[in-house]
Amino acid sequence: MAFIPLLIxxxxxxxxxxxxxxxVHARKAQSWGCASLPSYPTDxxxxxxxxxxxxxxxxxxxxxxxxxxxxxxxxxxxxxxxTFRIRQMGRENIFTCDPANIQAMLATKFKxxxxxxxxxxxxxxxxxxxxxTSDGEAWARxxxxxxxxxxxxxxxDLDLEEVHLQQAMRALPVDPVTRWTGExxxxxxxxxxxxxGGELPPDHFSGYFDRGQWYVSQRARFEKLHWLVDNxxxxxxxxxxxxxxxxxxxxxxxxxxxxxxxxxxxxxLEALVAVTRDPIELRSQLLNxxxxxxxxxxxxxxxxxxxLARHPxxxxxxxxxxxxxFGPYTPNHDSITFAALKSCRYLQYFMNEILRLYxxxxxxxxxxxxxxxxxxxxxxxxxxxxxxxxxxxxYYSVFVAQRQKELFGEDAEVFNPDRWxxxxxxxEYLPFNGGPRVCLGQQFALTxxxxxxxxxxxxxxxxxxxxxxxxxxxTLTLTLTPKDPVTVRLHEAAAVSAT
Length: 499
Description:
Elements: H1 3-31, H2 47-59, H3 62-77, E1 83-88, E2 91-96, H4 99-108, E3 113-114, H5 117-127, H6 136-146, H7 152-156, H8 159-169, E4 184-185, H9 186-192, H10 205-221, H11 232-254, H12 268-275, H13 279-310, H14 312-326, H15 338-343, H16 345-357, E5 363-368, E6 372-378, E7 384-388, E8 393-397, H17 398-401, H18 405-408, H19 442-459, E9 460-465, E10 474-476, E11 480-482, E12 487-492, H20 494-498
Parallel strand pairs: 2-8
Antiparallel strand pairs: 1-2, 3-5, 4-12, 5-8, 6-7, 9-12, 10-11
Helix pairs in contact: 5-10, 9-13, 10-11, 11-13, 13-14, 13-16, 13-19
Keywords: Heme, Iron, Metal-binding, Monooxygenase, Oxidoreductase
Organism: Aspergillus lucknowensis
């Protein structure tokens, strides 16, 4: 029975160790002027908050759930609460929509925060090691590899954009008499790049890529129990995604310098092969940039079409601006340049407003890499700093931040591109993140989306939402998209038929 005294002794040591570290952290927090945070009500483990998140996911209301939590705590505390503690599946997280705290994590205290191990657990099975899954030197290497893809010269080359746009246009045939298209799921066209009006087979890569992202988001919600989400289907989906990309990687690795076609265009995969011949790294870099380039821009365009269909006055104002700046729809698109798109002010206002209300990445997370603090959220008035131990997870939501009335006025929930006239913003508007990890492809995405909007509104003089009575619901995986298909009818301008 000698193990009983040993067990008691070990238990005492653990208790003493816990008390010691609690005292050390309390002293440090006090010396930094930190104060306590309000907590979102849940059970001891945080099972209720998981159930709440899974239910909201099923209902298509996750971003609204985040807003509601902020509102409920604000009512309870009788003040605006923008930062609070919340427990989910055994992990105590901090949630914030306070621009000062977001700025600290992404910029002024950048070195105190990292993506952390959970990002690896959730994204790595599908994406591998890349800009969205790594920290430190691995992240710096990935960013350096991606940077040449987003030079001014690359962004300004819109000829390839026109080729892909025309493929999408073939999926929008019009009736020769009425000049209306049929009822069209524009979201499918933008995300799947349908060719010649055809439909993709059910086992196409894009379907597996979307399903893989759903598994990624579910792993994140299960926190420490993320492994519960991994199953036969998730592994099969990842294998399909990897096999598809590996085809291109292997072809690039086998191609000799003499085999490469003469071209003045920069090709990302060819540039990667010149730096590394590791097939796993090549696959990972391609998947990371695919996620950044496909889903975020398609999300922006899908929300744009939905808002244009539901706000005819905005549609007419934007179309009039586009016709004044770029002329009517013709095969010649030379006037639509990077500089001209940037100079089209109302087009930029429109995209700003889309990204304010429907940011492509509405919620993100950082982990404290060492003991540190955030500037606001503690104390009775929420103005005191808050203390973070090493390993503390902090979620931040630009979706909630960008809809706060305190930051964007009483009409913050209203879609109104005119609010951007002569408006300057800071950390309250972050659709492309900020600090050293600011999105490399920001100008690329805005240029692509702006180009597509110009060409669409040159060709079509009206867009109708087939289901205008439907409430907007959300699908949130790694990006934010409408849950229901965006089904519209588009009317071709008479000038197009005459060309």
